[in-house]
């Protein structure tokens, strides 16, 4: 496979993980506009472990994911007090704070960035991306995911059927943060250079776009969304200058006509090999 | 009533709930005996729904205690109270917007089992939960609509789904908030028969209703609330003729 | 030295106030966060610059920026908000996000991503008041802000439109029942917010004598923090919070370094969201409350 297509595939895998991180949190009814912050934490933490401490990549990713997960849980607690737009704003603020922190983190280059990571293959990236995707798809069949959907649909009614909505929402933040961190770690070792600007609001929006466009109710929607965001600009070279505007217009179109995104549960069932549900 | 009242399943003791300067509930005490149908009636705004909200933990009592099976539940969180065996339905049905009827029943299954069962695909990991959900489908005659999105179904079926969701976990106490609102005579009758059946099987029922016929024909015991205070209690016959009750309803359609 | 920083902070704060008011109008009356306001601010600035570079008078530039932004706001309202006004608030918010993405791309293509600069000696005159020096530009920004805010206050408090806006802010359904043309007023709220954002864009561009397509994200997003800190439920909170944050930011840059200023501003926002969500000026901690 040529380096060019390998690069595209790698970016898709990395974006897929980021999109999934938003998807997990969104499944409980919380919109996070700051997941690039967790991605950045993952990127820098993993890089520090591999470059400065000689930890092999896979354990480094796991450690970073775990650490980010803890941070996600910590963020999840105050997030409980905020609803809808206020939560979105707070996560936006969080993402910006992380970026600002990284700008000042001289130990790892600050605004100058950090490098020295080993380059990894596309295959490795997709082992992670594919693995996490399969894990989530498996999870979607569980009662836990049903509980997450219940919390998303009506938190009060959910608590009345005995669901611990607090644990569910916080857990989702933790899980989402961990997945975003893995995305960051892989990004760092694929591009072998990272700087705070890589993990700003634009990136958080990219994740959200992938989920909203591709399908916000099923995990494979994130695959469609990521693929779209990475591949479409390449296929539509003639409008490459306007590709962002095209995505903005696409987002508005989807919201107006098919809010759940391209792939939804019914469509997915049509394409899946399984028989009818239940 | 001639027979002695059974043990109280639920007890409110001097419960007060204030919002800002308003006392929605003022020193309310009541006992809900086990295995009976008890009704709470009173004019609009009397505080009936507030009592439900305090029992289920949506609101914390400003003072006083709530006891369930002898244990205080006043400080518990809503989901913890639900798990002790208290279920509730709403005046305006609150179903899960994106879920099918089947999913409603599945998600309401009790959390008795090991956590790991809930993490794995239900299809093969949690046969017990599936079985109970299947039974609930049959009990409420919902098999034909099991894979339909609950909110897209006719109002009467939605009410059934809500009831099924509340009952499938086998609660000990069922709180019904205006269960026959919007129902016609036949539907109300059907519901009454169902509730009597459930009561015979051991369920304790506490309901809020405005439909006096329904209340009088079903409840063993009544509490009357007005302006957040308990103004009367007793069996339907005596409450019906209680002057304080008639007074409260004057100027308000009963 | 501190006094000088105060003046600089006030100027920055004035800009924040305008943008925050813009956000607050839409948030308070429509309940949604119009993310496109940050880019309306940016486009307004570019339009104003274009007018100035064409050698046309300054007031015209400000007006052009305001009207241009307002026009785009109308488009956003009609296409992106109206059809979605009964959906969960996240949906129209994401829709405005789509518009902001489009607007930024348009600006980058039409004007390029390098800073667009004003001719040098444009209103470069400085006035000295003892230890403080104020540029003519800073005075213009402060003065215009005061004027626009006063104008907005007049509209909101004294006119029937303002009364109707406040009615909708308090309770949309009741207002509708009372015969208030809610849809038309939502459009008016959008237009007003566009006018303010556009003005702010021109003013900030004039102040720094340069503009880039990224000022929206840089400055505009921080205005959200200002709105939250001042109190999303009281639009006049922006009047207090704007100067406050402006000064805080300038002080942070002067004494802490420019790198951590975002950290401080957003940190304050998150703190307020958690500890006192109704903001500095917000009243009792209720969800329903007069927002305007």
What would you note in describing this structure?
The complex is a heterotrimer of chains A (278), B (254) and C (292). With 278 residues, chain A is mainly α. Chain A has one domain (3-199). In chain A, 72% of the residues lie in helices and 1% in strands. Chain A has twelve helices and two strands, in the order ααααβααααβαααα. Chain A has helices at residues 3-26, 35-52, 57-79, 84-104, 122-139, 143-153, 155-160, 165-191, 201-214, 220-235, 243-257, 265-271; strands spanning 114-115, 193-194. In chain A, helix 1 (3-26) packs parallel to helix 5, helix 1 packs antiparallel against helix 8 (165-191) and helix 6 (143-153) packs across helix 8. Chain A starts with a helix and ends in a 7-residue tail after the last helix. Chain B has two domains: 1-69 and 172-254, Rossmann fold (3-Layer(aba) Sandwich), CATH 3.40.50; 95-169, no CATH class. Chain B is built from eleven helices and ten strands. The two termini of chain B are 24 Å apart. The relative contact order of chain B is 0.18. Chain C has one domain: ABC transporter involved in vitamin B12 uptake, BtuC, CATH 1.10.3470.10. Chain C has helices at residues 2-30, 37-53, 58-81, 90-111, 136-158, 160-170, 172-177, 182-208, 215-230, 237-256, 261-275; strands spanning 116-117, 126-129, 132-135, 210-211. In chain C, the strands form two sheets. A two-stranded antiparallel ribbon of chain C has the order 1-4. Chain C has a two-stranded antiparallel ribbon with strand order 2-3. In chain C, strand 2 (126-129) and strand 3 form a beta hairpin. The longest helix of chain C has 29 residues, at 2-30. The relative contact order of chain C is 0.20. Classes of the chains: A mainly alpha (278), B alpha/beta (254), C mainly alpha (292). Chain A binds chain C through residues 31, 78, 81-82, 84-86, 88-90, 92-94, 96-97, 99-101, 103-104, 110-111, 201-202, 205, 208, 212, 241-245, 247-252, 255-256, 259, and chain C through 27, 31-33, 79-80, 83-84, 87-91, 93-95, 97-102, 104-106, 109, 217, 221, 224-225, 228, 232, 257, 259-263, 266-267, 269-270, 273-274, 277.
The tally of helices of chain A reads 12
Task: Summarize the main sheet of chain A.
Answer: 2 strands, antiparallel
N-to-C terminal Cα separation of chain C, in Å? 37 Å
Question: How many extended strands of chain A?
Answer: 2
CATH class of chain C: Mainly Alpha
Task: Please give the radius of gyration of chain A in angstroms.
Answer: 18 Å
Average pLDDT confidence of chain A is 91
Distance between the termini of chain A: 41 Å
What would CATH call the homologous superfamily of chain C? Answer: ABC transporter involved in vitamin B12 uptake, BtuC
Principal-axes shape call of chain C: globular
Radius of gyration of chain C: 18 Å
């Amino acid at each position: 496979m040529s380096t060019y297509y390998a690069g595209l595939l790698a970016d898709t895998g990395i974006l897929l993980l980021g999109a999934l991180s938003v998807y997990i949190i969104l499944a409980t009814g919380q919109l996070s506009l700051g997941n690039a912050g967790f991605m950045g934490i993952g990127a820098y933490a993993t890089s520090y472990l591999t470059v400065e401490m000689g930890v092999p990549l896979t354990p480094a990713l796991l450690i970073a994911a775990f650490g980010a997960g803890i941070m996600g849980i910590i963020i999840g607690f105050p997030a409980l007090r905020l609803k809808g737009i206020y939560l979105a704003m707070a996560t936006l603020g969080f993402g910006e704070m992380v970026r600002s922190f990284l700008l000042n983190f001289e130990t790892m280059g600050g605004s100058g960035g950090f490098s020295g990571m080993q380059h990894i293959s596309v295959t490795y990236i997709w082992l992670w991306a594919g693995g996490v995707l399969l894990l989530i798809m498996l999870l979607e069949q569980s009662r836990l995911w049903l509980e997450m959907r219940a919390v998303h649909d009506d938190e009060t009614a959910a608590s009345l059927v005995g669901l611990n909505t607090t644990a569910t929402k916080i857990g989702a933040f933790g899980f989402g943060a961990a997945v975003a961190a893995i995305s960051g770690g892989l990004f760092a070792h694929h591009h072998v250079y990272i700087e705070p600007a890589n993990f700003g609001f634009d990136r958080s929006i990219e994740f959200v776009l992938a989920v909203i466009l591709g399908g916000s109710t099923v995990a494979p929607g994130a695959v469609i969304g990521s693929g779209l965001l990475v591949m479409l600009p390449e296929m539509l070279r003639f409008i490459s200058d306007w590709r962002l505007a095209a995505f903005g217009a696409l987002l508005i179109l989807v919201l107006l006509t098919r809010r759940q995104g391209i792939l939804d549960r019914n469509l997915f069932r049509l394409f899946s090999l399984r028989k009818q549900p239940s | 009533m001639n027979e002695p009242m059974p043990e109280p399943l639920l007890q409110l003791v001097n419960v007060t709930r204030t919002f800002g300067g308003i006392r929605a509930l003022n020193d309310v005490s009541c006992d809900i005996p086990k295995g009976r149908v008890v009704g709470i009636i009173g004019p609009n705004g009397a505080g009936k729904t507030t009592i439900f909200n305090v029992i289920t933990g949506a609101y914390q009592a400003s003072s006083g205690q709530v006891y369930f099976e002898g244990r205080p539940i006043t400080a518990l969180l809503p989901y913890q109270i639900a798990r002790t065996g208290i279920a509730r339905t709403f005046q305006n049905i609150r179903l899960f917007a994106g879920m099918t009827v089947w999913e409603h029943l599945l998600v309401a299954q009790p959390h008795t089992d090991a956590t790991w069962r809930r993490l794995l695909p239900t299809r093969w990991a949690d046969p017990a939960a599936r079985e109970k959900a299947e039974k609930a489908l049959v009990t409420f005659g919902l098999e034909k609509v099991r894979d339909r999105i609950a909110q897209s179904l006719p109002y009467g079926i939605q009410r059934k789904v809500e009831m099924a969701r509340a009952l499938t976990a086998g609660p000990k106490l069922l709180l019904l908030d205006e269960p026959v609102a919007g129902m016609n005579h036949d539907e109300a009758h059907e519901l009454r028969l169902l509730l009597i059946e459930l009561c015979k099987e051991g369920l304790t029922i506490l309901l809020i209703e405005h439909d006096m016929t329904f209340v009088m024909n079903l409840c063993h015991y009544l509490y009357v609330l007005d302006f957040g205070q308990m103004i009367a209690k007793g069996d339907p016959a005596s409450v019906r003729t209680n002057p304080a009750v008639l007074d409260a309803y004057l100027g308000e359609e009963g | 030295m501190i006094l000088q920083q105060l003046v600089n902070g006030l100027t920055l704060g004035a800009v924040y106030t305008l943008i925050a008011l813009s956000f607050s109008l839409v948030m308070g009356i429509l309940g949604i966060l119009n993310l496109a306001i940050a880019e309306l601010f940016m486009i307004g600035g570019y339009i104003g610059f274009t007018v100035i570079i064409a050698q046309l008078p300054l007031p015209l530039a400000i007006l052009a920026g305001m009207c241009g932004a307002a026009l785009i706001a109308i488009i956003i309202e009609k296409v992106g908000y109206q059809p979605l006004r009964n959906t969960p608030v996240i949906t129209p918010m994401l829709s405005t996000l789509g518009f902001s993405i489009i607007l930024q791309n348009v600006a980058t293509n039409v004007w390029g991503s390098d800073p667009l600069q004003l001719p040098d000696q444009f209103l470069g005159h400085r006035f000295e008041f003892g230890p403080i020096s104020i540029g003519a530009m800073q005075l213009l920004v402060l003065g215009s802000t005061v004027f626009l805010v006063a104008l907005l206050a007049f509209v909101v408090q004294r006119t029937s439109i303002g009364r109707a806006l406040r009615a909708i802010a308090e309770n949309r359904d009741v207002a509708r029942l009372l015969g208030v043309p809610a849809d038309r007023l939502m459009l008016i709220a959008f237009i007003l917010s566009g006018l303010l954002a556009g003005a702010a864009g021109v003013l900030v561009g004039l102040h720094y004598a340069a503009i880039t397509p990224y000022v929206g994200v840089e400055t505009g997003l921080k205005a959200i923090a200002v709105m939250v800190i001042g109190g999303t439920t009281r639009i006049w909170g922006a009047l207090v919070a704007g100067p406050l944050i402006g000064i805080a930011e300038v002080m942070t840059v002067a004494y802490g370094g420019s790198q951590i200023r975002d950290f401080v501003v957003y940190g304050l926002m998150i703190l307020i969201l958690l500890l006192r969500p109704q903001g500095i000026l917000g009243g009792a901690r209720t969800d329903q409350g007069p927002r305007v």
